[in-house]
Sequence to fold (756 residues):
Amino acid sequence: MSEGTNTVSENPIHASASEGSRKERLALWADEHLAKLLVIPTLVLLFSMTFYPMIRAIEMSMYQYTAGQRIGFVGLDNYVNLFYDSTWRNSLMVTAWYVFLSVTVQFVVGFVIAVLLNRKLKFRGLIQTLILIPMILAPTVIALVWRLLYAPGGLLDFIFYPIVGGNVGWISDSSIALYSLILTEVWQWTPLVVLVMLAGLQSVPDHLKEAAVMDGASRLRIFWDITLPHMKSLIVLILIIRVIDSIRVFDKVYILTRGGPGESTNVVSMEMYRAAFEFTNWGAAASMAISLLLIVLLIAITFVKIAEVKF
Amino acid sequence: MTRDTPVRDNSGDLVDRRSVLASSGATITALSLAGCLGDESEEGTAESISVAAVEGEGSWFDTLADEYLEDETGIEINVELLPFDGLFEQLVSVLDNRGDEFDVVFMDDPWFPRMANHLEPLEQWLPDGLPDELIQSTVDIATWPTPNEAVPPGADELEQEVRGTVAVGNAQLFAYNTDHFDEVGEDPPETWDDVLEAGQAIDSELDDTAGFVLRGERGNPINASFYAVGGSMAGRMFDDDWSYNWSSTEGRDAIDLFANELADISPEGVTAYDSDEVITAIGSGEAAQGLVWPGAASDMLDGTSEGDNIEFTVIPEGTQYAPTQGNWIASINTYTGDPQKRAAGEVLQEFISREAQELYVEDGGVPFRHDIFEEYIDHEPWMEALYNSLPEALPRPRTTEWNEIEEDHGIILNNVLTDDMTVDEAVEQAEEDLEDILDRAGYYA
Fold:
């Protein structure tokens, strides 16, 4: 190598011709492979931040841990144990009910608000801005504020006292606590549904609606046959986002109820948190995480298949 | 310019690229080696140490470090205060990975069995050893394996060694409002029957005053609150063979008293109450009596409407006298360097000295030395009750599985509190769940 370099340096004409052709080849090669090269940093990040932890989690889920120490390989035992674990099964049911109710209410309320805001309203800009505030607050701040609202003798009790004639155990009554959590979730995330649905409503081409009006279609007909099909992708997208996000709910539960009273608000993320960080049973926690991942994937794929949407 | 073309430096001398590279390489290597050797030196005493402590109780140590310990030892003490759950997570993360991020770690005593293998035997690092004035129960609770307690498998063959020093000498106390007791003509409670009787009288005769208040939130809060009742009415939670002991008639009576009878005279919403709510309820007069830790008692006394009417006594008796011990322990991380261990030893030695403890108590700290208790017995309203409790106090079970046991037992008790389970169902469930947890961890092998 050093010999070649010396030869080139001794013959400037050859050197510059050879250097020129090398640069050209390099430029051609780079041009041909530029797309792949640009993807490499993303792939490295994706692998180190997503795939590697996932592979590690799968590996950990196949070991038994006691007091944080790896005891031995147990294969799929941790997964099998989940099936027989009544606490885990209960947390799945609690999470399913939480997700179903909160996402349904968010979607219906959000869609209605979006339809209302899509009309010509006074102060529409101001209303839109105010509606977005809950969404931009930190979840922990929201949970702490709602904890004050739910406190015995707090603002909500003051409002409801004339109706129910006493304090409501918002987060202390096992038959009410989950609905209190859902109320907080709906309050925070309905604005996102409003935002996305409003964007969808505003993107429906006017000429289609005008043509339908000229053909004598009713408002309901226009909404059903033109607006909704046009928004199908966005609706599926927002439902997937909200379902996945709701399944992962942790901060509100941790601050407001810690999964109680009893097991009434014990969602899967609380159960995972306890297994991992309180009991340091990494194997059980990893098997819960992988199971949850599979459930979320299944839900997302089902949504997309049913709606026949291509993103 | 080719690779070996000589160039002139600022002084006008000729230098070539090879010599520049060689000298740079040598400098970097020398600096790296010096850096590595410097870090790995095990001689001397470090100039600073890092301490992980809990918010609240740990702040007394932090204040004392600034006020006294740094001046006396000449060692800079960097205290990081973390919330209760966050501290446990940090300790597990650092110690399980053999990290040296913290030289001294504070831990709640039930965490001690889980951490003990990562903690340095303490006495070798204390220049003057442990003082005789320490209350023996506070030394025992920081000894592994703990004397006179059931021992987990694997620890039974270990030699007993002190692996930490008490930092907060908590034992659970009983607080009651003298005004409320006087109004219904009841004497201060000595037994749980007295507590129930007075509580029911107060609850029915006084407006807007609950007869009792308990920490009902699932997990640690309700279990810690119940432990004193269970201990005094039914003895230890586990026997020496790690069988669940509270499935006895006395155990069922204890759960019934706590989760039914006392809960019935507690404020609404008590199923979600933690320590703060209990302190507020007693301090404001909303509730007449309850269990408290001395570390939090000041919040009940200072600036509250009923502060002057609150008195403290030892945990009422059932079939026996069994106050619950709840110490914070400070230990040296075994994975830190010897200079840090020496510095940590000097700091801890100074911390448990009489001079430091006088300041500690004046700042609000909870003591653990006989001489300090005797000198400051009137300093706080709870001091005498604590001094009567701490020498007799019983620790919670010394098991590595305590967090899971406490959580499970806490959920079951909470279920009784919310009427989702009967006492008998709770006991059967507790026996099955807790023994299953211990079985999985090899306690019955």
